[in-house]
Amino acid sequence: MKSGLHYSLLLVGVVGLFLFTGCHDEDGHYVDRTPPRAPQGVFSVTGDEQVDLYWLENCEPDLAGYRVYWNDEPTGYFHYMATTSNTFYTDTDVSNGMTYYYAVSAFDRSGNESELSEEDVRDTPRPEGFNLVLYDYNGPSSSLSGYDFSSYERQYYASVLTDIYYGYVGGEYVMFAWNPVPEWPTTDIQDAGYRELHELDWAPPDGWADNYKAALIEGHSYYVWTRTDNYAKFYVSHVEPGFVIIDWAYQTDEGNQELMKKLRTVKGDASGDPARFAQTGGTKK
């Protein structure tokens, strides 16, 4: 009795699985109607006028590729952007300071397309620079000792445009956050320690130096919060009494603390989303 019941349940399960995963056409040929699983682990890496997207590889044997979508809002209609067989994609059709939202779907050789990925992937590209030389403000090149992140230009250290400037003071290498007018909001600086520049993804809300300066150490990275409420970061690749060499990045979107976006959190249950999306786009709730 138990064995017969087991056989019946097994038969029902197999038939149900068969009906769920596909069907036959008029000629009796099996037709696959089962879409792949939505891509998992989608995240972005912020660049200068570009956004790099990455995700985990799907394991379906009939997988054909992935479609990448974007939107200017976290929910609603996502626009088709590209098709790829890779687990990464670089969006170069972006502007620094603008925020973009991304999602990825998978499709198989039968044309079945998955739901959009569930991760809330948001990114705001920002400018960056490398091997910037700032000279000691006490030396003959004081006109090149300061830097204005908003114009990407070196400045005289005491200029009202200057955000930071370098000085060799009392045997120490120092970067000053310049605050020329007492009534203005301040520019702040913070030492992030021995970290690569790409590791500084979000500017912190606190921990800023009380004296608006930071001792410079080769291999250290630093945060800057400008008086215009923009965030920046820089990495010290070399420093000596006469000058310092830094790499930097600056967020042009006012108040946005994003400097290098990485893995984002999952939005939650997407079971209410449509099961399939046309190549022209899809809706994400």
Q: Which class of secondary structure composition applies to the elements?
A: mainly beta
The DSSP helix count reads 1
**Care to count the β-strands?**
20
- What gross morphology would you assign? elongated
Beta-strand portion reads: 35-45%
Residue share in helix: under 10%
In short:
The chain is mainly β and 285 residues long. 7% of the residues lie in helices and 39% in strands.
Attribute tags:
about 280 residues; Immunoglobulin-like; 3 domains; 5-stranded antiparallel sheet; 1 helix; 20 strands; about 40% strand
Any overview of this molecule?
By secondary structure, the chain is mostly beta strands. It has one helix and 20 strands. The protein has one helix spanning 2-21, and strands at 22-24, 30-32, 43-46, 51-54, 63-71, 76-84, 88-91, 100-108, 121-123, 128-135, 146-148, 153-155, 164-169, 172-177, 188-193, 213-215, 221-225, 231-240, 243-250, 281-284. The strands form five sheets. The chain has a five-stranded antiparallel sheet with strand order 9-8-5-6-20, with no helix packed on it. A hairpin with a 4-residue loop joins strand 5 (63-71) and strand 6. The model is unreliable at 1-20 and 263-280 (pLDDT under 50).
